[in-house]
Specification:
CATH superfamily of the largest domain: inorganic pyrophosphatase (n-terminal core)
Number of helices: 11
CATH class of the largest domain: Alpha Beta
Strand content: 15-25%
Distance between the termini: 44 Å
Shape: globular
Strand order of the largest sheet: 6-7-8-9-11-10
Bound molecules: adenosine monophosphate, manganese (II) ion
Largest sheet: 6 strands, mixed
């Protein structure tokens, strides 16, 4: 069960759910990816099994990737998986998926890969245990912004209802995701939000975080890009943060500008309303370039 860089709840929840279901049928599973699971997702059942893998050792029958659109998103592990495993299975909902597997199941209408893996487990007649339900419910919960984004469909709620019936606890998941801040983190959030800038026409808002301004764990546990997105007039919100000699950029839209197209110009990707990329360079010039591209996309 192979995860993408900076793993989120959709990739972790689906890998763990599928892996737990297969383990119940006697499979031996290794879970891992290029980066560790963030501490904020430490409540996902089984996440302690998720390892940092810099290379794949040994032979595998199957390598499964979920929520992972392209080989670059595993820092080369997909290419190794093609040698180490007889079959590579690619389960994803990203429109820009490169179909790198032997089996490719791409459903761009799914709000989260969590919806797809739920359907797969139902099809396999696997028992949806409470730990599996919690993993899949969290995957759907986070990729839909707590059931608020335009990717939410009737199927999303039907699947969520089934998962709650199977033992996922919405209040426990919401509290684990959003109510575990320390008092210092809330103050840090206040200070960080004061850095948000808004364009003169009000249509673009951005938050540029210089190196060392906030700890990595803080950024991982806060969906900071949602705050500039929450401004009424804003059409595209951007979060830019320094990672080593690069800048990691998150873009969010509200339906009228396709931010995936902007991200693609910088070698990234994602969905029409949520996309991202990482580019080498310093914060100021990257911010300037990104804002120029965003403004061009936003202007009528
Ligand atoms: P993020 O802003 O990192 O939360 O990512 C938002 C969306 O963009 C997710 O669906 C990611 O899969 C996608 N995304 C982020 N960075 C990249 C990248 N470098 N290449 C392709 N897709 C990305
Ligand atoms: Mn993901
Ligand atoms: Mn996803």
């Amino acid at each position: 069960m192979l995860g993408h860089v900076h793993p989120d709840a959709d990739v972790l929840g689906t890998l763990l759910a599928l892996g737990l279901a297969l383990e119940a049928r006697g499979w031996r599973i290794v879970y891992g990816g290029p980066h560790p699971a963030p501490g904020a997702l430490g409540f996902l059942p089984g996440v302690e099994r998720y390892q940092v893998l810099k290379s794949l050792e040994g032979a595998f029958d199957v390598a499964v990737l979920t929520d992972c659109p392209n080989p670059g998103r595993t820092e080369g592990l997909i290419d190794q998986a093609k040698t180490a495993a007889s079959v590579v299975v690619n389960i994803d909902h990203h429109p820009d998926n490169r179909r790198y597997g032997h089996v490719n199941w791409i459903d761009t209408t799914a709000a989260a890969t969590g919806e797809m893996v739920y359907r797969l487990l139902v099809g396999l007649e696997a028992a949806i245990t409470a730990p599996i339900a919690t993993n899949l419910f969290t995957a759907v919960h986070t990729d839909t912004g707590s059931f608020r984004y335009s990717n939410v469909t009737p199927a999303t709620f039907q699947i969520a209802a089934d998962l709650v019936a199977a033992g996922a606890e919405p209040a426990v998941v919401s509290s684990a995701l959003y109510e575990r801040r320390g008092a210092g983190a809330l103050r840090m959030l206040g200070e960080t939000l004061s850095r948000i800038q808004v364009s003169e026409d009000g249509r673009v808002a951005w938050l540029a975080l210089p190196a060392g301004s906030v700890p990595e764990t803080f950024v991982e546990s806060e969906e900071l890009v949602n705050y500039p997105r929450s401004i009424d007039s804003v059409r595209v919100a951007c979060l830019l943060r320094v990672l080593g000699n690069s800048v990691k950029v998150s873009l969010r839209g509200k339906g009228d500008v396709d931010v995936q197209k902007i991200a693609a110009k910088f070698g990234g990707g994602g969905h029409p309303n949520a996309a991202g990329f990482t580019v080498p360079g310093a914060l100021e010039p990257v911010t300037r370039d990104v804002l120029a591209a965003v403004r061009a996309a936003v202007s009528p």
